[in-house]
Amino acid sequence: PGSVVEDTVNKPWRPIPASRITPYEAQRVLRVAVPAAMGLSAILGSFVASVTLMAFIWLYNDLEGSGAGPWQRNVLNAAGLLCFGWGAVLVLLGGDDLLNDVLCKWLMLLAAVIITTVQAQDLPDVGGDSAYGRKIMPTLYGQAWSRYGLAVLLLLWSVVCPAFWHVSSLLVWVATLLIGSTMTALTTLRWDPFFDLIVWRFWCLWISVLYLLSLYGQA
């Protein structure tokens, strides 16, 4: 119920607040979708990653981990997103669950990136999060600390991540730094929900670019 209240404010286009589907109907879909996803994951060799992802989703949604505090929420977000990467790597390796040392370090680095920057999603959602009663960084630490802290970390990781893979392509460096710098500028100079939403969308693009860095370098 709390998440429906939040979505009614922040994301009224979603199926439940838009009345395109009821919570009961959504549960019925999940009863089929979850076992189907688990079965497909077992066939593809990523069963452990999928089970782990489901556990984090349960912690985040059903056990109210999303409202336990900003850092707990960020950790759960990072854990869930890493499960997607972990599962994808397992599929590429043919189900071999022994990730090499470099990949393990890369996944841990991505975890640190997400934990320290995913709060970018909080800036455009302050209204809905307040209605839900969720503790988020802008309301706990203030807008200034949240924005300038995020800006510094975005620039930091935009340098550290390409450096990890020893990326030699100038184009890749420019793309990574350009996206990070754009988010930094908008976060610190335009304190407005419209631009905050743009920052969040850029964050999604930025994290996708970081995931692809391994294709352009070597560690």
If you had to describe this structure to a student in words, what would you say it looks like?
The protein is mainly alpha-helical and 219 residues long. The protein contains ten helices and no strands. The chain has helices at 2-10, 23-44, 47-61, 70-92, 101-117, 126-132, 137-141, 143-164, 170-189, 193-212. α3 (47-61) packs antiparallel against α4 (70-92). The longest helix is centred in the middle third of the chain and has 23 residues, at 70-92. It is flat, with a radius of gyration of 19 Å. It starts with a helix and ends in a 7-residue tail after the last helix. The mean pLDDT is 86.
Distance N to C terminus? 46 Å
Number of strands: 0
Compute the gyration radius: what is it?
A: 19 Å
Order of helices and strands: HHHHHHHHHH
Q: Fraction of residues in helices?
A: over 70%
Low-confidence stretches: none
Q: Which percent range describes the beta-strand content?
A: under 5%
Structural class: mainly alpha
Counting copies of identical and different chains, the oligomeric state is single chain
Number of helices: 10
Overall geometry: flat
> Largest beta sheet, briefly?
none
The mean pLDDT is 86
